[in-house]
UniProtKB/TrEMBL annotation:
The chain crosses the membrane at residues 36-55, 62-82, 88-110. It comes from Flavobacterium zubiriense. This is Phage holin family protein. Keywords: Membrane, Transmembrane, Transmembrane helix. The keyword Membrane applies. It comes from the Bacteria.
Length: 113
């Protein structure tokens, strides 16, 4: 049940952020739902591999390179999901930061660990 709530919350946040942020376009709630699912799967399967390969860079930048990896995950999701469009890499980077912070705040309010 927690997984379904997390996916729905992420989909709502994706739709909400895309509404206020220029450069991010989401066609519908169904598209936002697919974006949430694909982001979850990419974070489970692809992100650990990217983190492992970029460990020296991440070490030297004191972890800030993880933000770049999050932006790359958003760009990859843009290429996979039709109806979800991010204009530039910096837009994807800002979108990933806003999405992560808002997910943390919602999870704090909902009491989800």
């Amino acid at each position: 049940m927690k997984l379904i709530v997390r996916v729905l919350v992420t989909a709502i946040l994706v739709l909400l952020i895309s509404h206020f942020m220029t450069g991010v376009h989401v066609a519908s709630f169904t598209t936002a739902l697919f974006v949430a699912i694909v982001l979850g799967l990419l974070n489970i399967f692809v992100k650990p591999i990217l983190v492992l390969f970029t460990l020296p860079i991440t070490f030297f930048t004191l972890g800030l390179f993880l933000l770049v990896i999050n932006g790359l995950i958003i760009i990859l999701c843009d290429n996979i999901v039709g109806g979800f469009d991010v204009d530039t890499f910096f837009t994807a980077l800002l979108f990933s930061i806003i999405l992560s912070v808002s997910q943390s705040l919602v999870n704090l309010v909902l009491g989800d660990k």
